[in-house]
Amino acid sequence: MKKNKALKSVFGIYTGIFIFVLYAPLIVLTILSFQVGPEGGPQFPLQGFSLYWYEQLFGLTPPSRVAPLDLGDAIFRSLTLAIITMIVSTILGTLTAQAFRKNFKGSGLVFYLILLGIMVPGILVGLGIALVSNTLGIDKNWYSTSFVAHVLYTYPFAFIVMLAIFNRFDRSIEEAAMDLGANELKTFWRITLPQVIPGLLSAALFAFTLSYDEFPRTLFAAGPDLTLPLTIFGTFSIEVHPNLFAFGVLTTLFSFSILILYYFLMMIFTRKPKRLNVQEDIN
């Protein structure tokens, strides 16, 4: 009994340290974002508390020696790229996982080839895509070569998520629909798809977040128009000001809002199966 309590205490301390290490950079970043501007810099102690750097992000401050961050185009590119990547990777991952529900020759080899997209170092993938595009005379752009790099990276995650969902799926429901006369396409659309929507949401969340933050694969494949991570990295080579921390806080809040949206969508789409189960129990 005492041993169990000691283990629980150790795990509790470990979890507390993990959470602290996870959120400590965000806490520091948040505190520094309230530095007095434009004189204050990215160091402790703070010279005072103000919302100057947040106001500067929205162009509400007079001109100063610190130029405002020019991230509007980069945000648009990253969001557009992440949304398109999310859609394509989720569809490809779902279709591939659906194919893996039946044994076919070479399925093991194909499985590991798909996983290579995760295992190969990202910077090598980006470099390889850049070399191929140069060889073929294709211009590098965020919407072409970077898009390919992002799909290669996020597609395996979507595939793994959907494969796990399909492995838990009750085939007898589909067989019952087919016995009643539905073809495979109609069975998938009317029976299978509604049941795997929570998995689709998880796969889409993975694909969106991974693409939105992707840096190494985009470094060589982006071309002249940079995405948000590359643009932020470029500001480090000049001088770091608290406006970057303020933007980081807003970006983090945006990420939390996506998680909240994901939570509510999961609540909505997992409620229906529960009702069905209750009805089945009643019948």
From TrEMBL:
Compartments it resides in: Cell membrane
> Sorted alphabetically, which PROSITE patterns does this protein's record hold?
ABC_TM1
The UniProt keyword set, sorted, is: Cell membrane, Membrane, Transmembrane, Transmembrane helix, Transport
**Gene3D superfamilies, per the entry:** MetI-like (1.10.3720.10)
InterPro entries in alphabetical order: Bact_Polyamine_Transport (IPR051789), MetI-like (IPR000515), MetI-like_sf (IPR035906)
Start and end residues of each ABC transmembrane type-1 domain: 75-262
Kindly give the membrane topology term recorded for this protein: Multi-pass membrane protein
Report the domain of life of the source organism: Bacteria
Pfam families named among the record's database cross-references? BPD_transp_1 (PF00528)
Span-the-membrane segments of this chain are 12-36, 74-97, 109-132, 147-166, 187-210, 244-265
State the CDD domains in the record.
TM_PBP2
Tell me if Transmembrane helix is a UniProt keyword of this record. Answer: yes
PANTHER family tied to this protein:
PUTRESCINE TRANSPORT SYSTEM PERMEASE PROTEIN POTI
Q: Which family does it belong to?
A: Belongs to the binding-protein-dependent transport system permease family. CysTW subfamily.
Task: Please identify the protein, giving its name as recorded.
Answer: ABC transporter permease
